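To close the chapter, one final illustration. This time we ask the reader to focus less on the individual chains and more on the assembly as a whole: which components sit near each other, and how the overall shape emerges from the parts.
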Amino acid sequence: MNTIVELQRRWEAAIYQWPVWQRVLFNAVITGLSAALCLMLLPVRLPGMSLLGIGPNWALIWVAAWSICRVPWLGALAGCFMGLAQDALVTSSASPIGNMEEALATIAPSHAVGLGVAGFLISQFQRRRIIEDDVVALFLLIFAAAILTETITAGLYLIQDGTLGSVIWPHHQRLALCSAILSSLWGPAVYFPLKLWWQAIANVEKNT
Amino acid sequence: MLSLRRWWLKNWLRIVLIGVSAGAVWGLRQTQGDVLTEIYGWVARPLQGDAPNQSWERDARVLELQQRLAELENQNRSLRSLIDYQSELDDKGIAAPTIGRSANGWWQQVVLGRGSNDGVVEGAIVMAPGGVVGRVEAVTANTSRVLLLSNLSSRVGVTVGRSRFMGYLRGQNGNVAVMEFFEKLPDVRAGDTVFTSNYSQLFPAGLPVGVVESVDTKSGPAPEAKVRITAPLSTLEWTIIYPYTPESLDNLPLTDDNEPALNNQAGDGESEGTGNVGQ
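The assembled structure is written out below.
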């Protein structure tokens, strides 16, 4: 633990020397790259990283890592952005050919709603000190957020097509549980490196 | 004015960064995340390996060929009188490895490691040992994204091979889909093979899709059958992509009032569907 603290201290001292523009640029690049990496991990299903063909919700993990140390409106905004980016990876904007009846995807709820709400709530929780800064709290937080986002998506499906209930709910149970377990287990892998970086930046900014 | 200026000086960076993020997300949406998919395909390239030669794939292939043969015999019988009948799919397909699955748990998709550089086009048909898998919906230079038949809320025109009764196949997120018939009393029983119908605009007619597992004639508003999709959708490794451009609307069979049958966007599909049965 001491070595991590020592590393962090040296790292902060190094960042402190940088000109402001370099710090801002690095921060933006690292934030953007980490988000892009999480988006690219979404289609991956490696053994040990998937249950019943469902993988961790990397977008949610990133939003949780971001929101946990920020104000609610920034958490919600990041959640919306991440959700829109995830939409881009899933939905096709190409107009459906053929008639309205035949199509491979007739409804497509956006991820922005679920992730936006999750980002907002996570920052709220952090601000009110409901959670402590430890691994177990992070587990629980991401677990709950994953179930919440999948439930919101299920709700959006049902709003768009009420007849799908018999298919949606069994699928939702399996998906929410698998996604919550995997996301909370893999959460720290994204959360801790990002937290170290953002904390260093915040400390440096406080001192300048 | 001074306070506005002070506020701006304090917050301009944040606003610019939010603007940049919004721009990046907008760009991603406009390009369907092409950049990310392409990088992902590039990273996954060394992991693709060679086409497998496994026994279950051979068995599934034999099953598929048997189904196809039965379908062709049926088709031959009913189409013998037509002189302008021609095959809609090219013989040459593009073999493509699966390099990823859907980017969330709700959509049934796979990402394939072949793209426009290899001749894949949007709307191409994807087959696997066992039958139809889905349809290419987005293409980058080296990857393509396929929407599977099992996708929730998907509807594809299909027909029962033996009796030619038509209906829609509704995806249920799993290997079993539901076929909804147009007719009140369709001639269908467990074990019947289901093919894409010539009513379908997304797929060429006569491709094997699955086998009927059970029939529920009492369900309303139309009778339903559970259809097990023959291709192993959850364990897809290699697929074959066939470029396919749907028939233009002008060539479609016409309904009674001489309107192109599928051009009608009104959404009363059942009456449209029955209008086409038997053509």
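The mean pLDDT of chain A is 83. Chain A has one domain: 2-92+108-207. With these observations in hand, you are ready for the problems at the end of the chapter.
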